[in-house]
Amino acid sequence: MSVSTRSRLWLPFTQMAAFDACERTFVRASGAYLFDARGRRIFDAISSVWTNVHGHCHPHIVERIAEQASILDHATLLGATNPVAEALAARLAEICGLQYAFFASDGASAIEAALKMALQFWQNAGEPQRTRFVRLRSAYHGDTAGAMSVSDIRLFKERFGAITFESRAFEESDAARGDDVAAVIVEPLVQAAAGMQLASRAQHEALSGMTPLLVVDEIATGFGRTGTMFAFEQTALRPDIVCVGKGLTGGTLPLSATVVADRIYAAFLGAAHEHRQFFHGHSYAGNPIACAAALASLELFERERTLERVAGLAECWSRQARSLQLLDGIREVRSCGLMSGIELRTERLAASDAATPAWRVAAGLYERGFFTRPIGETVQFVPPLCSTPEELEGFARALAAVIA
Ligand SMILES: Cc1ncc(COP(=O)(O)O)c(C=O)c1O
């Protein structure tokens, strides 16, 4: 298979020499489905990498985007504000149990903001020696330099040592103590990019009382994916900073936020000559169209009782997961709410002409109408929250058939 000679597009995390645009071009979407250029209707079994929430092209979000685009498309947040960003900041602060929101675009940008905020917070607070970051083993927080530095997936970061800094693993004894620690950063409940690894609640408890500043990364887990609006609500974690992205706009537009406690924000206040303001910002921060989409998505959580729906779906999926677990080709099924990783016994499966056995399984699923991407030996299943029990059962049946 070869790349279309007309394509000038370079895809992320994709070996372009093996990519065939004719096989995988999505041209439209509706609800839980993507439609490819060959006219096939494909269930989005990874919610477009954990972004989609209420289904694609939800009419309520589409309407609010169109309406906002004709009122105020964009205006900078550098020294100015707009009512939509104001409303969203207030709403996010409320649902995170915090007080202020700082906007960026992608998840990694929210992490960069959190890291820089932590550093400048300690400078402003008179403890400039606090410069060390602590993260969990197998952590993943994004692909920009700071986010990579607090991540722990070797394959993704080993080439980029020249632009990253050292961080310590929380699991090393006393890593989170010491007067040089700026912050501990944690993915609550599920380490998604590590292959849907489930976090230890005991570790969350240990973490909660111990760190001078706790950053909780809800970029993958936020907005209902684990059964509650935010995963940290199910844990002992009490964040000073919460990073959100991905599902914030329901999966329609890039928008992320770093939501902070009053004490963080307050440390940045002062007279102009003191230069205490946060030295960080992006051109499209708080874009009104993206903020309108986010507000519409949050409205849908109430209108459509999304969290109640997720509870029912999670129960249905755990029944499916128990039967999958019995199959010879499956080592383990790890699930939390509607985030699930099915780890294959790849030694019992052939790769055939695919890169690995797991990629072959993903290709087989696509042929049966389900789009997913493996992480290592783990097939992900993270369906949109609007899915039906029948669709979850359909995925489990298709996976069993492919593995057989
Ligand atoms: C927990 C977590 N943090 C941060 C990110 C980075 O988000 P983005 O890809 O939007 O930069 C991801 C992406 O998968 C993630 O899973």
Q: Could you explain how this protein is built, in words?
A:
With 404 residues, the protein is of the alpha/beta class. The chain has two domains: 16-54 and 305-403, Alpha-Beta Complex (Aspartate Aminotransferase, domain 1); 59-303, Type I PLP-dependent aspartate aminotransferase-like (Major domain) (Aspartate Aminotransferase, domain 2), CATH 3.40.640. It is 32% helix and 17% strand. It has twelve helices and 17 strands. The chain has helices at residues 47-50, 59-69, 83-96, 107-124, 145-149, 154-157, 201-208, 262-266, 288-303, 306-325, 357-367, 389-403, and strands at residues 26-30, 33-36, 41-44, 100-104, 132-135, 168-169, 181-186, 190-191, 197-198, 214-217, 241-244, 256-260, 330-336, 339-344, 370-371, 374-375, 378-381. It has a seven-stranded mixed sheet, sandwiched between helices. A four-stranded mixed sheet has the order 1-2-3-15. A four-stranded antiparallel sheet has the order 13-14-17-16. Strand 2 (33-36) and strand 3 form a beta hairpin. Helix 2 (59-69) runs antiparallel to helix 9, helix 3 packs across helix 9 (288-303) and helix 10 (306-325) packs parallel to helix 12. The longest helix has 20 residues, at 306-325. The two termini are 26 Å apart. The structure holds pyridoxal-5'-phosphate. Residues 106-108, 111, 140-142, 187, 192-193, 217, 219-220, 245-246 line the site of pyridoxal-5'-phosphate. Pyridoxal-5'-phosphate is lined by residues 106-108, 111, 140-142, 187, 192-193, 217, 219-220, 245-246.
